[in-house]
């Protein structure tokens, strides 16, 4: 795996030297896809780190800001290979233990079966001597049934023991991981103590004190995380309540908008009716004015004729009177 990784890195470095930088590795999808397909290691562009899934189901992460892109990839590849070897060795040990336990149980079962057959044969030998040769013996059938029953019980016990061994192996692997983490923590503490000028004679006491401090900080972190989860839950509840209130307000506003639209439609209809009535009244007013002018012209003609008959004015022709009436009527 290491050789394949180095070949892959050199090949893509010749193609794109910028893959040694976080931004270049994040933008080069050919390099990331090749690493994922050949080694099972993925690149997280948001957090700028490599991560892979271990055989025990857990995930392993290495940051590119601290170690660099290629060095972080080499570290996570080495850790992945080491964990795979440990897991393979553990499985081989479990298989060997299972096989040894199975063989031991089979051997004990075989020895118990042989001893029971011998004792049963010694007890049934006088009765078998008196049985005729033509009649079949039922002792062998009962022996086979008891042996089958014993085998079934042995199989069930083997299944239970295998499940117990698997659980024990998982607990042992968890304990191994815890011990490895503790060893790494102690090594880091020792390195920090050497860097700070602390003497080597005060190692165990300082380690215990630092372990207590780590537990204290872990407790504080868990409490802070719990408070954060509570705040998040409260915020989610408030958001849900705000959504319900907004939904109710939206429904009320929709009802008001519908009522306003209906009222506007009624007002538009009333305005149209008023405009129609106003137009009708205007037409009637024009007709009334025409009639008034016609009546006034007729009255003037009558007055003129009356005055003419009395000899006060000179008579005008009738055609002139008719023309004036038409002009006034038009």
Automatic annotation (TrEMBL):
Keyword Coiled coil: yes
Domain of life: Eukaryota
Region of interest (Disordered), residue spans: 86-142
Keyword annotations: Coiled coil
Presence of the UniProt keyword Coiled coil in the record: yes
Biased composition (Basic and acidic residues): 110-123
Coiled-coil ranges (or none): 207-277
Annotated protein name in UniProt: Uncharacterized protein
Gene source species: Perkinsus olseni (Perkinsus atlanticus)
């Amino acid at each position: 795996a290491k050789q394949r990784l180095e070949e892959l890195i050199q090949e893509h470095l010749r193609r794109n030297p910028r893959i040694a930088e976080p931004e270049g590795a994040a933008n080069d999808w050919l390099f990331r896809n090749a690493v994922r397909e050949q080694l099972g290691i993925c690149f997280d562009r948001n957090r700028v780190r490599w991560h892979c899934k271990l055989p025990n189901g857990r995930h392993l992460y290495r940051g590119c800001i601290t170690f660099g892109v290629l060095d972080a990839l080499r570290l996570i590849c080495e850790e992945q290979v080491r964990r795979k070897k440990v897991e393979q060795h553990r499985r081989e040990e479990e298989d060997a233990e299972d096989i040894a336990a199975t063989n031991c149980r089979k051997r004990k079962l075989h020895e118990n079966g042989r001893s029971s057959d011998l004792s049963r044969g010694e007890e049934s030998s006088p009765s078998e001597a008196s049985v005729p040769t033509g009649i079949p013996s039922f002792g062998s059938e009962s022996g086979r049934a008891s042996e089958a029953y014993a085998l079934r019980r042995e199989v069930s016990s083997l299944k239970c023991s295998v499940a117990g061994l698997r659980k024990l192996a998982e607990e042992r692997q968890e304990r191994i991981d815890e011990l490895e983490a503790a060893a790494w923590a102690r090594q880091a503490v020792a390195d920090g103590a050497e860097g700070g000028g602390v003497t080597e004679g005060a190692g165990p006491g300082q380690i215990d004190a630092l372990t207590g401090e780590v537990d204290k900080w872990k407790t504080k972190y868990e409490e802070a995380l719990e408070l954060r989860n509570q705040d998040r839950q409260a915020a989610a509840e408030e958001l849900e309540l705000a959504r319900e209130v907004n939904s109710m307000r939206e429904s009320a506003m929709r009802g008001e908008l519908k009522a306003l639209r209906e009222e506007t439609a009624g007002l538009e209809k009333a305005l149209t009716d008023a405009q129609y009535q106003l137009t009708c009244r205007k037409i009637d007013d024009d007709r009334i004015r025409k009639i008034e002018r016609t009546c006034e012209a007729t009255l003037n003609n009558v007055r003129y004729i009356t005055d003419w008959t009395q000899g006060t004015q000179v008579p005008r022709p009738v055609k002139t009177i008719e023309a004036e009436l038409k002009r006034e009527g038009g």
